[in-house]
Amino acid sequence: MDAQTVIAKRIALELRDAMLVNLGIGIPTQVANYVPAGIRVFFQSENGLIGTGAPPEEGMQHRLLTDAGGRPVTALPGASTFDSATSFGLIRGGHVDMTVLGGLQVDQSGYLANWMIPGKMVPGMGGAMDLASGARRVVIAMQHSAKGKSKVVKACTLPLTSVRPIDLLVTEMAVIAFPGGRATLQETAPGVSVQQVLDATEAELDVPLHVPEMSL
Amino acid sequence: MRTLTVADAVALIPDGASLMIGGFMGVGTPERVIDELVRQGKRGLTVIANDTALPGVGIGKLVSADAVSKVIASHIGLNPETQKKMIAGAIEVELVPQGTLVERIRAGGFGLGGVLTATGVGTVVAEGKQLIALAGKDYLVEPALRADFALVNAFLADYLGNLSYALTARNFNPVMAMAADTVIAEADNIVPVGLISPDHVVTPAPLVDYLIAQG
């Protein structure tokens, strides 16, 4: 299983029946492929859709039905559409139960940086700041390291997305939560030891006596 | 409400005007109006919109045509030309969180001076802005936004200018139709009065100043 699949499958286990969930672009989008059997989740696209479905079959695209990246999607039975003010009212107002976002850095206090690299990448924050500040539960899907450097850091050096701490970080190596504002190792990926996680992590991690393995 | 050709409607827009333009990555953007702005060679426009789409799509065409001197948007990442012109100093870009952007526009159209939002507190977005604590929580003061013109795209318009939208093409359109001095609407379909049921009118006719005739 590749890193992205491990992350997407593990985050899918956080989904519960009837949740309203917003998925960011990249790895978060893949979470929709692993919704546990027997539950129904409403996916929101912040461009104004609840009930976002998979991409349509070739030839069935509609130019007025896209996700937030402008790609054609389908709308599931029971879907609804609305304007951007309502869409962000849903997000800021705490009506979105969970958001899954990508990350550039997460630090040991749970702060997230995911929207710009000064001098290199200035795409704009889009909906990320509203989601990170307003969703009931913020889950980050992120590779543990980039170019040999830990992305789970002591303190974010990149501009923050929000000062509201995230709730859960899932990487291809570990699940990390932030009870009491302290990064705490919750689970390791199959075949990954606690020591390997610690070696790959710049942040200080609290490690409980027993750390279970992700059940994928 | 008056019906105009796209050329006559765009002729109303002077160089240097501020424009709110509906659409999200080009979906729900009045494409004929954009093409005509390019054809008439407009310059110095301020564009307030969610994003600048892609080169060759929607607002991306205005950027490529050097029609724009300032952009207020939440995202420019999928249009490398906007980024290039920003870095070169040819376009001033103000990046605003998407929820804050639409709410500032909503405030502009709803007669409010601005909005209080927790989004952006403690980040670079908060720099130079007033912070207000209410009921133990910090909020940024984000001022209302208005524009000289709103350029909106609807799925249906009737002969009076009532508008309804389709699927994800609604996005910023109805909010912007409240927040500009002059509203120009381009509809995919123009239908007789009565075909849009009152319950399905999203932008009421009195808000629309000009409806673009089918070309």
Description:
- The complex is a heterodimer of chains A (216) and B (215).
- Chain A has 216 residues and is an alpha/beta fold.
- Chain A has 5 helices and 14 strands.
- In chain A, the strands form 3 sheets. In chain A, strands 4-3-2-1-5-8-12-13-14 form a 9-stranded mixed beta sheet, sandwiched between helices. Chain A has a 3-stranded mixed beta sheet with strand order 7-6-11, with no helix packed on it.
- In chain A, a hairpin with a 6-residue loop joins β13 (174-177) and β14 (184-188).
- The longest helix of chain A is centred in the N-terminal third of the chain and has 10 residues, at 3-12.
- Chain A is globular.
- The N and C termini of chain A lie close together (10 Å).
- The model of chain A has no long low-confidence stretch (mean pLDDT 96).
- Chain B is α/β, with parallel strands linked by helices.
- Chain B has a single domain (2-97, 145-212), classed as Glutaconate Coenzyme A-transferase.
- In chain B, strands 1, 2, 3, 4, 5, 9, 10, 11 and 12 form a 9-stranded mixed beta sheet that branches. Chain B has a 3-stranded antiparallel beta sheet with strand order 6-8-7.
- In chain B, β2, α2 and β3 form a beta-alpha-beta unit.
- The A-B interface holds A 45-49, 62-66, 68-70, 75, 81-85, 87-88, 91-92, 121-130, 133-134, 159-164 and B 24-28, 50-51, 53-54, 73-78, 83, 86, 95, 97-100, 102-103, 106, 117-125, 155, 165-175, 202.
Which runs of chain B of at least 5 residues are low in confidence (pLDDT < 50)? none
Shape of chain A: globular
Separation of termini of chain B? 18 Å
Query: What's the gyration radius of chain B in Å?
Result: 17 Å
Looking at the overall shape, the CATH architecture of chain B is 3-Layer(aba) Sandwich
Straight-line N-to-C gap of chain A: 10 Å
Helix percent of chain B reads 10-25%
Helical run tally of chain B: 6
CATH homolog superfamily of chain A: Glutaconate Coenzyme A-transferase
Average predicted confidence as pLDDT of chain B: 97
Q: Over all CA atoms, what is the radius of gyration of chain A?
A: 17 Å
What topology, given as strand order, has the largest sheet of chain A?
4-3-2-1-5-8-12-13-14
User: Main beta sheet of chain B, described?
Assistant: 9 strands, mixed
Average residue pLDDT of chain A: 96
- Biggest pleated sheet of chain A: 9 strands, mixed
